[in-house]
Design brief:
This protein is mainly alpha-helical. It has 3 helices and 4 strands; from the N terminus they run ββαββαα. The protein has 2 domains: 39 residues, no CATH class; 59 residues, Irregular (Zf-an1 domain), CATH 4.10.1110. It binds zinc ion (3 copies).
Length: 110
Amino acid sequence: MSKCINNCGFFGGLETRNYCSKCFAELDINLRTEDELTEKYPVQTNTERCWDCNKKVGLTGLKCSCGYVFCSKHRFPENHKCRIDYKEIGRSQLIKNNPIITSEKLRKIE
Ligand SMILES: [Zn+2]
Ligand SMILES: [Zn+2]
Ligand SMILES: [Zn+2]
């Protein structure tokens, strides 16, 4: 028996790829969601049409951060089922622009 390679303190096994059963179950869920994501979000091959309504947009199509091209009506994330979690991005940007760090930097300059 060896320790779980996830360092959780439990013991792992060969049949669970050196993870304990708990970590292996979590890993399994992660792998499954990844598969589901690629299934849910196929690659847009025809970028001359809106991904949402299939309207022909030609060169006037607008590409969203999620990677798909949309017509002017569906260009905004709230107008299509955008897979980009803007709330999540906003939160990480808040952490990046942490005001405490900024004030510390300013103090150093003084
Ligand atoms: Zn574990
Ligand atoms: Zn559209
Ligand atoms: Zn989008």
